[in-house]
């Protein structure tokens, strides 16, 4: 699944393995996790591969965990049965919002993986019960005092407030990450950003359904 948010492009794939990690065995529960990475030339200047450095960076670990947490909010691990799904999100080109694009694209990849398991009759529960909601994410922020949706890199670095909003298709929140980068912000500004984030996620939910139907 190739997802594009403006000039940001992320390739999202799902890999299914029968069985679960050792600490999960015998629980009857499945597992969903994610790994995030950026290609060396995804940004304006080349960065070294983390595999060459021999160490996964803190930012990479944080985003990987965020993607995994977000996607586990849409899946019934008991209905999944003792199957593992790993979501790989590789940033091909970065212009802001890579983590939100990764979450949105990874949902589609996860849905395809669950459908594949259902076709093989490898689920413990009914297919409709396994994924009981959709998940989307988008960035919002205040730039020169004005709310902006899906910030590109130039807007992101200039933003007084930067926020990532993860929502369900029903408009409920899964996770909100917000920071006053250059200034404090008021409650009414927070509400405006959350409203804008929900609006963006609603549009993304429609795009996801269109992609899954094609």
UniProtKB/TrEMBL annotation:
**Binding sites annotated in the UniProt record for phosphate:** 59, 97-99
**EC number from the UniProt entry:** 2.7.7.56
Q: Name one GO molecular function term.
A: 3'-5'-RNA exonuclease activity
Which Gene3D superfamilies does the UniProt record give? Answer: GHMP Kinase, N-terminal domain (3.30.230.70)
Protein origin, superkingdom? Bacteria
Which ranges carry the Exoribonuclease phosphorolytic domain? 2-113, 137-197
Which is a GO BP term held by this UniProt record?
Answer: rRNA 3'-end processing
UniProt keyword list: Nucleotidyltransferase, RNA-binding, rRNA processing, Transferase, tRNA processing, tRNA-binding
Which reactions does this protein catalyse?
tRNA(n+1) + phosphate = tRNA(n) + a ribonucleoside 5'-diphosphate
Q: What class of enzyme is it?
A: transferase
InterPro entries with a match to the protein in the record: ExoRNase_PH_dom1 (IPR001247), ExoRNase_PH_dom2 (IPR015847), ExoRNase_PH_dom2_sf (IPR036345), PNPase/RNase_PH_dom_sf (IPR027408), Ribosomal_Su5_D2-typ_SF (IPR020568), RNase_PH (IPR050080), RNase_PH_bac-type (IPR002381), RNase_PH_CS (IPR018336)
What Pfam families would the database entry show?
RNase_PH, RNase_PH_C
Would I find Transferase among this entry's keywords? yes
UniProt keyword annotation of Calcium present: no
Task: Indicate the quaternary assembly.
Answer: Homohexameric ring arranged as a trimer of dimers.
Summary of the function given for this chain in its UniProt record: Phosphorolytic 3'-5' exoribonuclease that plays an important role in tRNA 3'-end maturation. Removes nucleotide residues following the 3'-CCA terminus of tRNAs; can also add nucleotides to the ends of RNA molecules by using nucleoside diphosphates as substrates, but this may not be physiologically important. Probably plays a role in initiation of 16S rRNA degradation (leading to ribosome degradation) during starvation.
User: What family name appears in the similarity comment?
Assistant: Belongs to the RNase PH family.
Q: What is this protein called?
A: Ribonuclease PH
């Amino acid at each position: 699944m190739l997802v594009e948010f403006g000039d940001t492009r992320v390739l999202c794939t799902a890999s299914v393995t029968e069985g679960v990690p050792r600490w999960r065995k015998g629980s009857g529960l499945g597992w969903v996790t994610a790994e995030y990475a950026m290609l060396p030339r995804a940004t304006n200047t080349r960065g070294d591969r983390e595999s060459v450095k021999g160490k996964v960076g803190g930012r990479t670990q944080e985003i990987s965990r965020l993607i995994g947490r977000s996607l586990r909010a849409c899946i019934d691990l008991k209905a999944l049965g003792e199957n593992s799904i790993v979501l790989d999100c590789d940033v091909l080109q970065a212009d802001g919002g890579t983590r939100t694009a990764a979450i949105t694209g990874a949902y589609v990849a996860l849905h395809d993986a669950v459908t594949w398991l259902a076709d093989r009759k490898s689920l413990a529960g009914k297919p409709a019960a396994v994924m009981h909601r959709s998940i989307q994410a988008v960035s919002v922020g205040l730039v020169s005092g004005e709310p902006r949706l899906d910030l590109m890199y130039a807007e992101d670095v200039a933003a007084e407030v930067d926020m990532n909003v993860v929502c369900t298709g029903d408009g409920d929140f899964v996770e909100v990450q917000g920071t006053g980068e250059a200034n404090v912000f008021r409650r009414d500004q927070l509400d405006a950003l959350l409203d804008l984030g929900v609006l963006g996620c609603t549009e993304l939910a429609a795009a996801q359904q269109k992609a899954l139907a094609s």
